[in-house]
Amino acid sequence: MKKKILYGLFTISLNFLFINVTSQDIALPAPDKTGGKPLMQALSERQSVRAFTKENLSQQQLSDLLWAGWGINRLEDKKRTAPSARNVQEIDVYVALPSGLYLYMAESHILKQIHNRDIRAVTGTQDFVAGAPLNIIYVADLGKMGKKEGDVIKESDLLSSYANTGFIAQNVYLYCASANLGCVIRGMVPKDKLAPEMGLRSNQVIILSQTVGVPLKN
């Protein structure tokens, strides 16, 4: 029995060492599903904010925000907090932080690092995006809808992705209202510059971006 306990502690120690030394991914804490303001109050306080402090979001805030926006709320079916047409779940949520670019992996609830460059300034054309602590980029992976690299992508191919992104973005708005954070959805995105910075394929399309942070008080 003692050997099993020692082996377990040794394995945990190795895993901890491996995660912290060789991985730049962010393992998010479990989302807090009990806090926040009542829904009707959050709806009443929902608004767009374009002025933010330099204060970074905590890992708990990141966890709660991403789960609220596009997390898995029915584990057995891998279904999400927001709907998607035919349950294709083609929207990928990328997160631009000062420490780099990450992809939200809902099943494991981690932020997988794509690279360590700060590309916040490229996520929009407005001045405030570069200094805000978090910029979310919503990307439609049309490979999940049968589009191959090099295929022509028409506006009609993106209709459901526009709607699906709207559902996720509204969840983020409501979370922010509930957690006293500010956010704004943005269509002013230099997609031709941003897509290469993100390393996207030709069948991945940037839909919108959303800036999140602590509101700057007047």
Protein described:
Strands 1-6-5-4-7-9-8 form a 7-stranded antiparallel β-sheet, with helices on both faces. It is built from 6 helices and 9 strands; from the N terminus they run H-E-H-H-E-E-E-E-E-H-E-H-E-H-E. It has helices at residues 2-22, 39-45, 59-70, 128-131, 159-178, 191-198, and strands spanning 26-27, 72-74, 79-80, 91-97, 100-105, 110-115, 134-141, 182-186, 204-213. Residues 1-22 have low confidence and may be disordered. Helix content is 33%, strand content 22%. A hairpin with a 4-residue loop joins strand 2 and strand 3. Helix 3 packs across helix 5 (159-178). With 218 residues, the protein is of the alpha+beta class. The longest helix has 21 residues, at 2-22. The protein has a single domain (25-213), classed as NADH Oxidase, CATH 3.40.109.10.
Explain the layout of strands and helices.
Blueprint: H1 2-22, E1 26-27, H2 39-45, H3 59-70, E2 72-74, E3 79-80, E4 91-97, E5 100-105, E6 110-115, H4 128-131, E7 134-141, H5 159-178, E8 182-186, H6 191-198, E9 204-213
